[in-house]
TrEMBL record:
Pfam family, one: DUF2064
PANTHER family documented for this protein: GLYCOSYLTRANSFERASE, SLL1095 PROTEIN
Protein name per the record: DUF2064 domain-containing protein
């Protein structure tokens, strides 16, 4: 058996609670369906990370799973992960702190979100191998943001604290912020993430046929 890649894959996640999850998407499909879609995306992401050949897996979680869609099932999946609480005043702060907290495991940290359910174990392993060969990696998203960030030095994530999030230029600003730290940044594959109704069909086509995301968006009216 091949040895695990010495990388900690960090999933930054929000409990899919109706009214709190996928609020931009909820404006189009309603709070309940938006939370169902968020739950499916998170579960597919957790499955992919759990199947990846990596040394450590962490979830930085915010929100109450007891109020979430598929809360018990997600809780069961999380037994394969080290779970830490998100901390910070805003999303950029929470991302930077999550890198610091995950970095105590002693491995380079490859951070992804829960908005790219098409991610596979194979792709995660490819990204991890790229990170092992570079001080930093960034996975661009087609909407101008990013879906993955990998760092050997978790302290380097401090540059995220000044990056405006959820904007069309977030990816470009993040890349410049990383460059100012003196790091060489290797780019990963570009993926679509799910924020708006128009994103759903694109992402569904990239998901496996048996994915939870594909099932809930095909039958849920999205």
């Amino acid at each position: 058996m091949n040895r695990p890649l010495p990388v900690n894959v960090l999933v930054v996640a929000k409990a899919p609670v109706p009214g709190q999850a996928k609020t931009r998407l909820a404006a189009a499909v309603g709070n309940d369906l938006a939370a169902d879609i968020a739950a499916a995306a998170l579960q597919d992401t957790l499955d992919a990370v759990a199947a990846a050949r990596v040394a450590a897996r962490t979830v930085a979680l915010t929100g109450d799973l007891n109020l979430a869609r598929c809360g018990p099932a997600i809780g069961s999946q999380l037994t394969a992960f080290t779970v830490i609480a998100q901390r910070g005043m805003d999303f950029a702060d929470r991302l930077a702190n999550a890198h610091l907290d995950a970095g105590v495991a002693g491995y380079p940290v490859l951070q992804i979100g829960m908005d790219t359910p098409q991610v596979s174990a194979g792709l995660i392993e490819e990204c991890a191998m790229t990170l092992l060969d570079a001080p930093a990696v960034l996975g661009p998203a087609r909407d101008g943001g990013w879906w993955a960030l990998g760092l050997h030095d978790p302290a380097a994530a401090a540059c995220l604290r000044t990056v405006p999030m959820s904007r069309p230029d977030t990816g470009a600003v993040t890349l410049r912020a990383l460059a100012r730290t003196g790091l060489e940044v290797r780019l990963l594959a570009t993926l679509s993430d799910v924020d708006h109704l128009a994103d759903i069909d694109v992402v569904r086509r990239e998901c496996p046929r048996d994915s939870r995301f594909g099932a809930v968006t095909a039958t849920g009216g999205a």
